[in-house]
Amino acid sequence: MEKHTEWQRQIEAEIEGELSLADRAVLARHLASCAHCAGARASHLELRAALASASGDPHARVVPKHDIGRRGVAIAVILALAIGLTGGWLVHRYWSAPGAGSLEGSRAAIVAP
Amino acid sequence: MRRSWRPERVAIVAVLLLTQGVTSRVEYDVTVVASYGGDRRVLATGRVSGPQETGLRLALHTDSADVAALFGVEHPAESTFTLVGDFFTERQLARSRRGLPLIEQDSYQRAMPLKWGTRARIFPLGVPRPNVVDSLWVEIAVTRSPTGALIKPSESATVVDSSIGMSLEAVVRPRRAVVWLTLIRGDTASPPRRLDLLVDAAARTIELPVGARGRRRLEFALARSEPSPFKRDRVLALDADVVCLRVGEPGGTGPVRSTCGRLNNVARRLPLEGDDTLVATISWPGAR
Q1: Which of B76, B141, B130, B82 minimizes the C-alpha distance to B109?
Q2: Residue B288, pLDDT score
Q3: Are strands B23-36 and B39-51 parallel, antiparallel or unpaired?
Q4: CB contact under 8 A, B110 and A109
Q5: CA distances from B13 to B6, B10, B51 (A)
Q6: What is the pTM (predicted TM-score) of this model?
Q7: If you count residue pairs, one on A and one on B, with CB atoms under 8 Å apart, how many are there?
Q8: What distance in Å separates the CA atoms of residue B265 and residue B130, rounded to the nearest whole number?
């Protein structure tokens, strides 16, 4: 069982293109003699194919990774700042200490006729 | 019997007027007015008058605010003066999460040059904005008239609408006071003795009968009370008519006893050295 787990890690690495030629040869020899690991590899490949199809690229060689990039980070920071500032202003407006308006405007005034 | 104004009598009157100075009487005519949807309604009226230095203490109570102010006349000239008001306001702004009122306190001074007799408007909670229809204000007209004698302060007020509370008080710092003295020893009391004292003047020594045949000499002086430690009391001059009667042995020997109070005709007991007790009643001097 433990042995199959190790081979499945090798299968995942092979699908990701991370195995050397020598390791791929060793894995191919094992798959030829192990129906369980061969079935697992087929399942992995079918799952990757379904994901690639769902992401709009059914002919992809590997599953595309989601790349956020600098632009996405900048947009996320600006959005977070805008939401924070708006929320802070709303909290100050409605839940902070009462007494709106200027102090002088609330004070008594003597008006000559 | 016919009276004649002989030259010596005229001279005496003239000398008296010159030595006393030409005194004048100042009068504050107060009207509290509310405007509901442009409809003007008088809520309360009142009048306070007294000597030139008389101030007006006005207290106004509404559902959401308490306004207290001390008005006075400064820089009096032939036709103009400056109306000065020291305000102390408490306004309910909101309620806390526990349901208790949150109150905002404020203290400040306002001044406005006016002509005698003109009716100034005082907006105690600030001048209303242009689009606000309902408002409350106080109209005060101050007039001055000469008087030939020293006069006592007087005050009167009428509240027409019970939705507000208003009180008016004349504020005058007394320059002299009448003190009625009775000395008690055991179950005997001396006949009341009237003493006319100037405030912050030198002490006067008098002899009072005490007991069956005894007599006791005491020294009496009037002084102003110490300023109140509370800002509101100082701003509104709540201790203006409080004086302290100091009683001691002649020549400054022995301890000096003191009792302080308003000029309100209330008898105050002051234990002296020995078994004697002095009962003192301080009041305003009568008009002369």
Answers
A1: B82
A2: 43
A3: antiparallel
A4: yes
A5: 11, 5, 21
A6: 0.67
A7: 58
A8: 50
Q: Among residues B258, B88, B70, B21, which one has the least CA distance to residue B172?
A: B70
Q: Which helix (H) or strand (E) holds A73?
A: helix A69-95
Of B83, B118, B126, the CB nearest to A109: B126
Q: Are B228 and B239 in contact (CB under 8 A)?
A: yes
In whole angstroms, give the CA distance from residue B203 to residue A105: 51
- Quick one: which of A113, A104, A103 has its CA closest to B137? A113
Burial B76-101 (b: 16+ CB within 10 A, else e): eeeeebebbbbbbbbbeeeeeeeeee
Q: What is the ipTM of this complex?
A: 0.74
pLDDT at residue B252 is higher than 80: no
Angle at which helix A21-33 crosses helix A35-54, to 10 degrees, equals 120
Residue with structure tokens 């320059």?
B175
| Residue B254 banded pLDDT, cuts 50, 70, 90 | confident
Cβ within 8 Å, pair A111-B125 = no
For the segment B103-155, what is each residue's pLDDT rounded down to a tens digit? 999 999 999 999 999 999 999 988 888 877 788 999 999 999 987 666 778 89
CB contact at 8 A, B280 and B245: yes
> Backbone phi, then psi, for A22, in 5-degree steps?
-65, -45
Contact between chains at B93 and A110 (C-beta distance less than 8 A): no
* In contact, B195 and B178? CB cutoff 8 Å: yes
